[in-house]
TrEMBL record:
Activator of Hsp90 ATPase homologue 1/2-like C-terminal domain span: 66-131
Domain of life: Eukaryota
Protein species of origin: Sciurus vulgaris (Eurasian red squirrel)
Phylogenetic placement of the source organism: Eukaryota, Metazoa, Chordata, Craniata, Vertebrata
Protein name: Activator of Hsp90 ATPase homologue 1/2-like C-terminal domain-containing protein
Family: Belongs to the AHA1 family.
Gene3D superfamilies cross-referenced by the UniProt entry: 3.30.530.20
Transmembrane segments annotated in the record for this chain: none
Alphabetized Pfam families for the sequence: AHSA1 (PF08327)
Length: 138
């Protein structure tokens, strides 16, 4: 198995700024492929929680609730170095509950079931247990 490699420290970057724009264009002087492509899949999971969107959102982050969505890079320890999946958590209000929709892109094919198990057991079930505590729901 070939694992991803880091960029060469001798690689030069060229930065161009057009006077009429506020955007930067960054180009490598010699294109170097970082890492290797591995086969990946996308996952979709949903879970219902007996709580409000605000309270469930607050378990994941201390940031202000703006659009009922959190997007983050995610990596399991046993994945190839520098390989990350993109996880999107959507918080959907339902009658007296919140549906959490998890969409994950870039999960290595051989790690799909492990990823589902991890989210179900180590996250969803743990959060449900946390929500049963009287200080959170009372």
């Amino acid at each position: 198995m070939i694992l991803p490699t880091k960029a060469s420290s001798t690689q030069e970057l060229t930065v161009k700024r057009k006077p009429s724009e506020n955007t930067l264009q960054v180009q490598a002087s010699s294109p170097v492929a970082l890492g290797v492509r591995i086969p990946t899949v996308a996952l979709h999971m949903t879970e219902l929680f007996d709580t409000t969107v605000e309270q469930l959102y607050g378990i994941f982050t201390v940031k202000e609730l703006k659009n009922r969505k959190i997007v983050m890079k995610w990596r399991c320890r046993n994945w190839p170095e520098e390989h990350y999946a993109t996880v999107a958590l959507n918080f959907v209000p339902t009658l007296g509950q919140t549906e959490l929709q998890l969409d994950c892109k870039g999960v290595p094919v051989c790690k799909e079931e492990n990823m589902k198990f991890c989210w179900q057991k180590q996250h969803f079930e743990e959060i449900k247990g946390l929500l049963q505590l009287p200080t959170l729901n009372g």
